[in-house]
Amino acid sequence: MKAIPEDRRFDFVEGEVLHFDKPLHWTSFRLVKILRGHIHRKLGVRNFKVGHAGTLDPLATGVMTVCTGRATKLIPMLQESDKEYVAAIRLGATTPSFDMETEVDAEYPVAHITREMTERVLASFVGEIDQVPPLFSAVKVDGKRAYRLARKGREVELKAKKVRVSELELLDFSQTEIRVRVVCSKGTYVRSLARDIGAALDSGGYLTALRRTRVGDVRVEMCYDVSQIEEIVARAVLPDGDEAAAG
d(Cα 60, Cα 53) in Å, to the nearest integer? Predict the structure, then answer.
């Protein structure tokens, strides 16, 4: 968790780029909404812009960048940064959502999987690849979010898109679960990568844990904790130019 220096003040109107360690089960929208609400109450302004530069699923944790005021114009540029993740992948099974949001729908053998085989498969995903997003994702289909259609049981066909995986390192191995470090481009779904790795191992795979450890040059150790939001907003520069006292 990043400490807040005693003399640090936050000018939310002029624009701040803040990095938080998003907790498990929080949506990206929830983090933005809480920060925006505190800023609204502190500054007494309406229609104040607060946005994030890259969604994190509720079942993922780690670096999430939030911009305020005039700094929201930087969001498109910030979204282009490469991301680093540490992911746990359960082998030998699949789920419709490619993670633990939905129940296991099929099981597969794992006795044939070796560390050497796994490392070869991981190497085959490094570079530019075609990736089909998960059905349970925010990708739009005819103007509607795919996850909304999937939850209604609608048949949805998503097109593959090109993404780039710069690094894919095996950190831990067992025949039923692996842990990997992934460095990838904007738009890469690590859930889809888990599914595809399982299939390439002649088995199944789905994501059981995901932590975004870096966005661009910002590592998770450099992020604020969400418990610090009140203190951050207490240090706001007020609209009349006076600085709010910390506390």
Answer: 15
